[in-house]
Write a sequence for this structure.
């Protein structure tokens, strides 16, 4: 705040919002271009400690059960104990990474809004003040926006409802009757471990699950990413890559299918005080409903910029928002995977470099 009582913004070239895989990758590449943290760019992260969304994963998700964790650029993750919780292993790795490359992440910092500012800059309003940036890399992921479907009678349920975001591990469900909703990787993982301790489990999905046999090779990976990328190019809300790849038919899943644990029921029509029910007369009693129904992109702070398309998403080409080339979204849509986030971070920094040196003629001109 200056002498006249007006809040002043700290000027910087780039603000990175989020310090998960995508945000750290972007910060690393900004550093590689010669930009200095806390002078030329700043990384803001709302989490209490390093680790991105991994720090909030349930204790039973050990590192050995994590599929497809790709190393951050410039530093491998080696010597990890597969029996340790992934939250601890990856959190410690991210912590070492931030220190090794001196990224100086600011946390915990909540970003509340990004608005148009003077002289072609973006005003990033946060709990530690306002930054005026020439470009923004948004790497906020999805963990903070769990999706809770709404069904008739939901408020009448006398049991417990929780989401994957608050999943505590299987021990909390010992001896209980549990309905698991959702046909993705998290839903099947939750169901298989809960079934070992629960009195009864029921698996409910909107669509019949698709199980994928055979190796997930590079060609299949590219095809899956292309389907997700097409949605964001059209300005539709992104779907996860997993949603178009199907579930890998592992030995654990084969066993769960053979033993009836993965015996799928269609989506119920309503929730009752004692469980769930279908219009055909079927009903089951339950103590817990676990919603493994996914997440949405955490981008509400970008609302003042009016980037959303009529379809509900932000139209993106590569990593750049079509409506504002100063805004880059990494870890959004096709880059919402560990290897995709790495590549997106590098691509965003290259594009921002052209914006900063004036070779990108599509960006707004300061007046």
């Amino acid at each position: 705040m200056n002498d006249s009582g007006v809040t002043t913004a700290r000027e910087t070239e780039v603000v990175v919002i989020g310090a998960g895989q995508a945000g750290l990758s972007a910060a690393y590449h900004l550093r590689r271009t010669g930009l200095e943290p806390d002078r030329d760019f700043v990384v803001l992260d709302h989490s209490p400690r390093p680790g991105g969304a991994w720090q909030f994963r349930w204790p039973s998700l050990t590192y050995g059960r994590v599929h497809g964790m790709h190393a951050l650029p410039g530093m491998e993750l080696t010597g990890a104990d597969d029996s340790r919780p992934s939250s601890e292993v990856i959190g410690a790795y991210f912590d070492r990474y931030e220190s090794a490359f001196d990224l100086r992440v600011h946390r915990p910092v909540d970003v509340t809004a990004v608005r148009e500012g003077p002289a072609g800059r973006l005003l990033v309003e946060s709990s530690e003040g306002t930054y005026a940036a020439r470009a923004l890399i948004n790497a906020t992921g999805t963990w903070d926006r769990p999706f809770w479907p709404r069904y008739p009678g939901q408020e009448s349920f006398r049991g417990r409802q929780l989401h994957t975001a608050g999943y505590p591990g299987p021990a909390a469900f010992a001896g209980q009757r549990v309905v698991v909703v959702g046909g993705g990787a998290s839903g099947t993982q939750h169901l298989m471990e809960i079934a070992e301790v629960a009195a009864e489990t029921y698996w409910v999905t909107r669509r019949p699950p698709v199980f994928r046999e055979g190796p997930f090779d590079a060609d299949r990976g590219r095809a899956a990413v292309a389907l997700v990328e097409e949605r964001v190019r059209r300005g539709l809300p992104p779907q996860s890559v997993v949603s178009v790849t199907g579930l890998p038919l592992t030995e654990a899943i084969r066993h769960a299918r053979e033993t009836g644990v993965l015996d799928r029921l269609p989506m119920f029509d309503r929730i009752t005080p004692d469980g769930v029910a279908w219009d055909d007369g079927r009903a089951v009693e339950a103590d817990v409903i676990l919603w493994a129904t996914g997440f949405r992109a955490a981008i509400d702070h970008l609302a003042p910029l009016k980037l959303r398309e009529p379809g509900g998403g932000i139209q993106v080409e590569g990593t750049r928002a079509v409506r504002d080339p100063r805004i880059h979204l990494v870890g959004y849509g096709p880059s919402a995977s560990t290897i995709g986030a790495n590549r997106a971070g590098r691509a965003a920094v290259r594009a921002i470099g052209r914006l900063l040196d004036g070779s990108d003629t599509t960006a707004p001109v300061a007046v």
